[in-house]
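Give me structure tokens for this 299-residue protein.
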Amino acid sequence: MRRVSRRNIYGSMNKTLLCLGFGYTAQALARHLIPQGWRIIGTTRDTGVTMDGVEILQWPGTELTLDEITHVLVSIAPKESGDPILSEMKEAFTKADLDWVGYLSTTAVYGDRDGDWVDESDDLRPASPRGQWRVAAEQAWQGIDGLPVHVFRLAGIYGPGRGPFSKLRSGKVRRIIKEGQVFSRAHVEDIAQVLRASMAAPNPGAVYNVCDDEPAPPQDVIGYAAELQGLPMPPAVRYEDADMTPMARSFYNENKRVRNDRIKDELGVQLIYPNYRVGLEALVAAHDIDDRDKMPGGG
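Here you go.
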């Protein structure tokens, strides 16, 4: 009966997505769903955040209900104390009648593999507190009986307004060289298409790595971005000699190559941006190379 009521109010598609954390990835997904008639609700900590076609709620601070929700995207990062959403809303999720829940996690749950390949079947060895919190949050969401949870382990996210170009033009970028170091990446539009594919074919309990086909050294990415802009090649600095924040240095403590076969085999995804070169070239071609302010909320 409840779903019939939703259909009468919101149209025959009867689909409402609640984005818990209306950040970069959630915005990209919303831009695709709104033209299809979806109702989108997004939460943020900031006041004054708007997006055409999205109902913005301040959270924490607003009481949330799942009564009219069919789909939920969770992109708020966990803390040492646990997942902030489940701390407030676990009982509501236990009782909810949802078609799909997507939890945005990170490939940091695999920890350091000394450059070896990992896939979704590998054991989790988080090396950083951030990765450990993510593992705990994944397990907490997966532990809610009957909840159709899908976990998406995202590699480093880039895309329109989130790339190396502004820093390159400022002259502040260096190419940090650490022998054998590679990172996997994911263009935000590819993440959005993976989420849409999963929403169209739910498989509760599924876990997906979301990344491109080509893990690459960070200095190669910076160098190619400079080449595309006709800028001088940034200076190379040995990792051991680099002046870096603890957060930045922590990323270099993990070295792995992430497989993405499952999103292709199970969801039929064909990556729009299979490597960083295609992705950066598209940003330049679209003249979308300036960093924008990021809305909070994760993802």
